[in-house]
Input
Amino acid sequence: MKFAYTRLVTEDVPRLASFYENILGLQGRGEDSYVELHPGGAILAIVSSKAARFIHGGNGPQALINRPSSSSKLTTWMPSARVSIPS
Output
């Protein structure tokens, strides 16, 4: 499987964008609420929770606190469904 588009939702777009810029060696394009990086033909979008809610009419994904827990799982948000993948 090859990813074409991935969106990460966060409360601190500049900080997360800087993290991925350093790891990928790329310069992001955007502003404080939305930044895109283009690694290998894909798009990595980093968006604020507020911008995600606006984009999805108030029902968008929320940034979660990134802390391990005993019930850690990967959650993918799609407009019509939430899909949870156990870790």
